[in-house]
Amino acid sequence: MSDRAPLSNWLEESRAKLARAELSPQAEPVGWVARVADGIVQITGLPDAALGALLQLESGAYAFAQSLDPEVINAVLLDEGAAVEVGDRVSDTGEVLQAPVGEALLGRVVDPLGRPLDGQPAPKTEARLPIERPAPEIIERDLVAEPLETGILVVDSLFALGRGQRELIVGDHATGKTSLGTDAIINQKSSEVICIYVAVGQRASAVERVVAAVREHGAPERSIFVAGLASAPPGLQWIAPFAAMSMAEFFRDRGQDVLIVIDDLTLHAATHRELALLTREPPGREAYPGDIFYLHARLLERAAKLSPELGGGSITALPIAQTDAGNLSAYIPTNLISITDGQIVLNTHLFSANQRPAVDVGLSVSRVGGKAQKPALRAVSGRVRLDYAQFLELEMFTRFGGISNTRVKAQITRGARIRALLTQPRYSGLRLADQVALLAALADGALDAISPEAIPELRAQLPGWLDAQATEAVGEVAQSGELSDECRAELVAAVRALAKGFARGVVQSDEEDG
Fold first, then answer.
1. Alpha-carbon distance 480 to 275, whole Å?
2. Domain-located, residue 12
3. How far apart (Å, rounded) are the C-alpha atoms in residues 439 and 449?
4. Catalytic residue among 141, 209, 298, 367, which?
């Protein structure tokens, strides 16, 4: 009897609960996979799904709505589609596509959805932000008035970057575009700038080299690596730069400065074209859909300097684009040049001549950063670009005969030293004081006594020499950014003294050769 009593109580309680329960019909929108191929899923049903909505398939894979037709949703898979089959059930999560954000991502290598690629546990991020967010309005922005120092002399002196600027890095294949962006990230080890490197369609080995370089020479604890690898589904490659920009906006909205390098938007455009053709969007020029300009414009416009009322944070974007045979008038490079605030053009011939970085000073320009350049650097770099351009022209004309004009000889001599100064090895960023000292010494003729071949070694020894011989001048330039006459004289004297030692060694070797 004791066993029957609990059973009877349970029956009575269950009947009472059923009697009190309110039964009413419930409708849940459900979609079905009509077709799947090449990373694209066509879905029927889900009439209330929004553009960009995050959809979950029966297999557990995720996709986002790329385009909405009257009867079909064209969705892009964010996971491998091997387990997705026709007839699978699809549900709308009710959310748009979001990216994880927060300090937990610092030092990590993740995919655009925040999943770890470095073999460590998943980062415990603070929040999630939509990958598509509106760019700051004009009234919310501030002037670009603070420099972003890359440590690369040719960039900082001739094509200076400001915090909040968008500067395109463009050139043919294998001309050092990624290296330029990586060096800019590495140089932020001496600043408070947060760095984000986003790879779009790159090989895993290429991304590993960038990560290894930053970990060895830079500040990986303030860097995030977002990888939409070539082996990843096209959907992940497509959302990679947008997800990385949302990660950057988390820090920007807290008043911090962020540098984001996007490598590269040419491959991103190719991925967008692939998805557009698979979803039967009408093709335009070079088979790209008509919205390709708007796609990159709404991405790069999110890089800006916010007003003090909004915290004063900034995002500086260095997008990378690839050209074929130096053709800057191609569709995608032309679009990006018109969107950004300037471009750094890398030249194949200069790269082949072992001039690294192979920056073409005639085609490169920075339309904003010069306003943010430190006064000390601006004071000594004013004529460098003009003198170097004249040297390149004179060098071309003097290849076929001797030089009799004294003034032309002087220009050739000065130009050869400018070229040697602008040729800079990787991972050897220069401080502001080092750059100012070199350019001031060049203008005052302190480097004329040594051969151009000796300048790389002089540059390598210069930081330690200046710290010992011109301590006060180095401190003044670093602290104030100004260059007084006394400070300039002290820096030039220190460089001249260092150059004399190199000159004596060069002269001695020349005499021995004679």
1. 51
2. no
3. 15
4. 367
Residues 144 and 280 in one domain: yes
**In a shared domain, residues 128 and 150:** yes
Are 228 and 111 in contact by the 8 Å Cβ rule? The answer is yes
Q: Is 367 a catalytic residue?
A: yes
CATH number of the domain that 396 lies in? 1.20.150.20
In a domain, 6, yes or no: no
CA dist 431 and 151 (Å) reads: 6
**Residue 364, domain extent:** 99-373
Q: What is the pLDDT of residues 297-353, one digit of tens each?
A: 999 999 999 999 999 999 999 999 999 999 999 999 999 999 999 999 999 999 998
Q: Quick one: pLDDT at residue 151?
A: 96
Tokens of 258: 């962020």
Determine, yes or no, domain membership for 290: yes
User: Omega into 283 within 30° of 0, i.e. cis?
Assistant: no
Write out the two tokens for 453. 């071949």
One-letter amino acid at 213 equals: A
pLDDT digits (tens, 9 = 90+) for 29-63: 889 999 999 899 999 989 889 989 999 999 999 99
Number of structural domains, the chain?
Answer: 3
Q: Read off the tokens for 221.
A: 């604890």
Decide if 16 is inside a domain: no
Average pLDDT, rounded, for the chain: 91
Tokens of 244: 């990385």
This prediction's pTM: 0.91
Residues 347 and 437 in one domain: no
User: Confidence band (pLDDT; 50, 70, 90) for 6?
Assistant: low
* Domain stops at, among 373, 407, 429: 373
400 lies in the same domain as 286: no
Phi and psi at residue 285, to the nearest 5°: -60, 135
- Helices 331-339 and 265-278 pack at an angle, to 10 degrees, of 120
8 Å CB contact between 494 and 514: no
DSSP code per residue over 384-444: HHHHHHHHHHHHHHGGGS----HHHHHHHHHHHHHHHHH---TT-PPPHHHHHHHHHHHHT
pLDDT tens digits, one per residue of 400-445:
666 667 788 888 888 999 999 999 999 999 999 999 999 999 999 8
Locate 197 and state its tokens: 């490197």
Considering 41, 76, 96, which residue would you say is the last residue of a domain?
96
Q: Same domain, yes or no, for 359 and 214?
A: yes
